[in-house]
């Protein structure tokens, strides 16, 4: 007998808490499939999130919850196969992701963000979140010019541990990684924080496979999708009203300290209505990915048009209550 349970791919870290609550307290009928990154938390690497993209295209999951820029990059590349395999259908986290800017513990010559222009930036991979955020920083600081790159080198280091080692041995000058994942290494004195920068978009989106959406136009979407949104909304509301339980879960099941979990709670806002996406958020993300060279500009095609093709609008209207 074929198991028809909805499969949701997710990242097993602090951001997954409302999803956990949706299943634990409200009976979310789904198989939750974790996609851990191994050497580093997946929230910091667009490349790691592309594993989710591969999984949904391969039919291994039906719904994915991941970083906005990963889903956008997956649908916006010129070599995107077929119909892309999925569409962006919901918003999970409304707030941007805070990326800490780090250097070595004993690098006194690096005093501030201003001193990073023309330096060596450490990245996990070309096209990764750490790479894209280098361009976000350069764009914000006015370092982007048509005549040259904002940094002397992009040093590819694969994972978080290598990045930390590189800024200490001098093979890279700085790198960017999610704040709360980095914080324990500030506390231990291994690396030093010199600033922060936020994604210019809300950080997490929900996608559904085109098979689940009923093909092009999403005219016959699977009704179970709206049930998932309903349970997620309940999980988010429970998360907001039970902060102590959230801290206990994060600090015991997800390897964060209770203190850091409580601090993170003050910085994050989940969507109270997870179904639906603001097309302007996607357009802004496309613009930055084009500046970073992750996506190519298409002659005569506006970012708004490209963004529209990535979304499914009016999904809730198919299932009036």
From TrEMBL:
<comment type="similarity">
    <text>Belongs to the bacterial solute-binding protein SsuA/TauA family.</text>
</comment>
<dbReference type="InterPro" id="IPR054364">
    <property type="entry name" value="Ca3427-like_PBP2"/>
</dbReference>
<keyword id="KW-0732">Signal</keyword>
<feature type="domain" description="Ca3427-like PBP 2">
    <location>
        <begin position="99"/>
        <end position="197"/>
    </location>
</feature>
<protein>
    <recommendedName>
        <fullName>Ca3427-like PBP 2 domain-containing protein</fullName>
    </recommendedName>
</protein>
<dbReference type="GO" id="GO:0042597">
    <property type="term" value="C:periplasmic space"/>
</dbReference>
<dbReference type="Pfam" id="PF22384">
    <property type="entry name" value="PBP2_Ca3427_like"/>
</dbReference>
